[in-house]
Amino acid sequence: MNLDRTNPEAAIAEAAKACSNWGRWGADDVLGTLNFLDAAKRREGAALVRRGVSFSLSQSFDMNGPQKGWRRRTNPVHTMLDTGTDAALGNQGFPHGIGGADDVIAMPLQCSTQWDGLGHIFDHGKAWNGRDAAETVTSDGDRVTGIEHMAPYVAGRGVLLDVGRVIGENGELPDGFAVTEEHLTATAEAHGVTVGRGDIVVVRTGQLSRTRRDGWGDYAGGPAPGLSFTTAGWLHTSAIAAIATDTWGFEVRPGEFDHAFQPLHQVAIPHIGLLIGEMWDPDALAEDCADDGVYEFWLAAAPLPITGAVGSPVNPIAVK
After folding, report:
1. Based on the domain organization, do 142 and 205 belong to the same domain?
2. Cis (ω within 30 of 0) for the bond into 254?
3. Does the predicted model carry a pTM greater than 0.90?
4. Residue 1 lies in a domain
5. Which of 23, 137, 154, 171 qualifies as a FRET site for 163, CA 20 to 30 Å off?
6. Same structural domain, 37 and 96
7. Same domain, 177 and 117
8. Which residues lie closer than 8 Å to 273 by C-beta, 6 or more apart?
9. Which of 236, 247, 112 is nearest to 176 (CA)?
């Protein structure tokens, strides 16, 4: 795809038409590309567990996170409702000396490691499968494609594409680096792994590693390496079930158009029906994959079944 930097509208329209999955799984579909992740694919993923070593691919959920308030996103606020102090002072009113602690957390659902649900992004007022966005997501939440529908299904064969290690320098891609289909294919070949139908793909750019070293800076919304808009065709034809990155916005920032905001999202979510993960932490997994040369694994990454939510925190677990 040759991009005209001055005309994002035309590029988005062209890609949306070429990559549309509207109607592919029926008019009532609420799963999008998760339909590719079937029972056979889960059995294939489960068979990859050999050593039994596991990795969390989640960042922390605490006040020390990257959020700065953009789009009213804040870091999690964790508050204790009952504490050991309360128990020791006998303030809890329980019998025979039993005491306990309880807590609550308040946070935007997309403030740390998370999935973008199918109701998260629209294209010209249209949601996934061609639905009217105004009727799909209201003040009551996503009344049709709420992320709770996906909760039972996001587990299967995971594949790490460590583009930062293969293409970058010292394991990292610079901010503004557009990861193309060619980069993804070259990385898969370097890892000796295939990517295809029903896979959950994790792309490591190395930006999170750099952020750990240099501080949050503009991690939540600023410049970043990420997928090129030109990967829309690959995201469609590869028939992957889901894809996640270690960056805030999944796609390259600044973008490849002069005046645009998240144009790949505008194609991938409402037209392809693709489940997209952001701010994942694949660093420990990537080190292990580099050590043993195995870049495929069992991956369980269920969203919280929050009724009507358009996104969800997640603690992805990779098992090798």
Report:
1. yes
2. yes
3. yes
4. no
5. 154
6. no
7. yes
8. 21, 24, 29, 31, 32, 33, 118, 128, 129
9. 247
Helix (H, G, I), strand (E, B) or coil at 316: coil
Interior angle at CA 286, CA 285 and CA 288, nearest 5: 65
Final residue in a domain of this structure, among 106, 125, 157:
106
204 by DSSP, 3-state: which?
strand
The H or E element that residue 240 is part of is none
210 shares a domain with 115: yes
**Collapsed DSSP state (helix, strand, coil) of residue 10:** helix
The model's pLDDT over 27-78, given as tens digits with 9 standing for 90+, comes to 999 999 999 999 999 999 999 999 999 999 999 999 999 999 988 999 999 9
Residues counted in the chain: 320
Sign (positive or negative) of CA dihedral 113, 115, 119, 123: positive
- Dihedral sign for Cα atoms in the order 131, 135, 139, 143: negative
Q: Are residues 65 and 124 in the same domain?
A: yes
The whole domain housing 85 covers 76-106
Task: Say if CB 196 and CB 239 are below 8 A apart.
Answer: yes
Position 2 confidence tier, pLDDT thresholds 50, 70, 90:
confident
Helix (H) / strand (E) containing 15: helix 8-19
d(CA 209, CA 192): 24
Q: For 37, list phi and psi in degrees, rounded to 5.
A: -90, 90
Residue 187 shares a structural domain with residue 53: yes
Q: Are residues 37 and 101 in the same domain?
A: no
C-alpha span between 189 and 166 (Å, rounded) = 10
CA-to-CA dists, residue 243 to 160, 174, 236, 250, angstroms:
10, 20, 12, 9
Cross-strand pairs, 296: 159
Residue 3 falls within a domain, yes or no? no
Q: Hey, what's the torsion of the CAs at 59, 288, 302, 152, to 10 degrees?
A: 180
Domain of 296, CATH number, reads 3.50.30.50
Residue 201: strand, helix, or coil: strand
- Same structural domain for residues 118 and 220? yes
Q: Are 62 and 85 in contact (CB under 8 A)?
A: no
Tokens of 66: 């990257």
